[in-house]
């Protein structure tokens, strides 16, 4: 993926260009990554209306991924899982459903790590994707919680703790994480033993593939099929990416039932 176009910017908001970045470094990579995802889906509008960190991660990285409900695991098991992902260098996000104590409802957070503090309490480190414009967790082990005064200096240094309520980064216990987050998504680190192969089908129309049988369009549709074989025993992750706004392209002269032309 080559990103060589303009990057989305809204001048009506102060410093919006850096909204998704670390406020200290003002890194450009989040905008570049978002632009790559937008190009993959053909436009920013498609990205906004059909965005999922797991799918975007697999598409951009070219690897597999998975997800699970936090309700299916104990708090201890959640910490174990997240620590293993951290060690492997996987990209991990978590969906917040509750939206209480400073958290945003129905919002994905980046999972930065899983740690055991000097007092033996297991905590999860997260970041609000809105960065300096996003609120932080105000419950136990928030940045200003006096409990941090009882944690050893070496432990705080190792987990990267800072008392900064405006950087979007915060900690919470694994129990609070299980209570406030509904599920976890993770995309595998491509810099391990992953190998990738992909196919791109463009402009097939209704002339290529096997005749469809679904009620959506029946025999007027065609589907493209692939045979995947392996000479060794291994796990294969197969995904299909459909850019909605281009895959189901309508003739610009076609008029819908509501009279609208698209």
Based on the model shown, name its key terms.
262 residues, alpha+beta, Cathepsin B, Chain A, six-stranded antiparallel β-sheet, two-stranded antiparallel sheet, 8 strands, 23% helix, disordered C terminus
Overview of this protein structure:
α4 (75-88) packs across α6 (174-180). A hairpin with a 5-residue loop joins β3 (107-116) and β4 (122-127). The longest helix has 14 residues, at 75-88. The chain contains seven helices and eight strands. The chain has a domain at 52-187: Cathepsin B, Chain A (Alpha-Beta Complex). With 262 residues, the chain is an alpha+beta fold. It has a six-stranded antiparallel sheet, with helices on both faces. It has a two-stranded antiparallel sheet with strand order 7-8. The relative contact order is 0.15.
Number of strands: 8
The CATH homologous superfamily of the domain at 52-187 corresponds to: Cysteine proteinases
% residues in beta strands: 15-25%
Question: C-alpha Rg, in Å?
Answer: 22 Å
SSE arrangement, N to C: HHHEHEEEHEHEEEH
- Quote the CATH topology of the domain at 52-187: Cathepsin B, Chain A
Q: What would you say the CATH architecture of the domain at 52-187 is?
A: Alpha-Beta Complex
| Silhouette | globular
Kindly report how far apart the N and C termini lie. 29 Å
Report the biggest beta sheet as strand number plus sense, adding barrel if it closes: 6 strands, antiparallel
Helix content: 10-25%
> Taking all residues together, what is the mean pLDDT?
78
Level-1 CATH class name of the domain at 52-187: Alpha Beta
Structure class: alpha+beta
């Amino acid at each position: 993926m080559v990103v060589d176009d303009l990057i989305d910017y809204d001048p009506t908001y102060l410093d919006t260009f850096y909204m998704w970045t670390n406020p200290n470094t003002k890194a450009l990579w989040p905008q570049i990554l978002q632009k790559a995802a937008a190009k993959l889906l053909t436009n920013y509008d498609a990205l906004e209306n059909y965005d999922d960190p797991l799918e975007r991660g697999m598409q951009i990285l070219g690897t597999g991924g998975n997800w699970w409900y936090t309700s299916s695991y104990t708090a201890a098991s959640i910490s174990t899982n997240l620590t293993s992902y951290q060690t492997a260098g996987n990209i991990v996000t978590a969906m917040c459903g509750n939206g209480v104590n400073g958290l945003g409802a129905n919002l994905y957070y980046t999972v930065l790590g899983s740690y055991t503090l000097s007092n033996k309490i297991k905590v999860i480190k997260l970041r609000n994707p809105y960065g300096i414009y996003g609120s932080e967790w105000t419950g136990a082990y928030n940045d200003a919680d006096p409990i941090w005064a009882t944690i050893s200096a070496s432990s705080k240094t190792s987990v990267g703790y800072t008392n900064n309520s405006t950087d979007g980064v915060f900690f919470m216990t694994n129990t609070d994480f299980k209570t406030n987050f509904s599920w976890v998504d993770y995309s595998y680190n491509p810099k391990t033993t992953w190998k990738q192969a992909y196919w791109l089908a463009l402009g097939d129309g209704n002339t290529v593939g096997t005749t469809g049988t679904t009620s959506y369009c029946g025999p007027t549709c065609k589907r493209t099929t692939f045979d995947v074989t392996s000479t060794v025993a291994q796990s294969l992750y197969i995904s299909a990416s459909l850019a909605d706004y281009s895959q189901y392209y309508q003739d610009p002269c076609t008029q819908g039932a509501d009279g609208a032309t698209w």
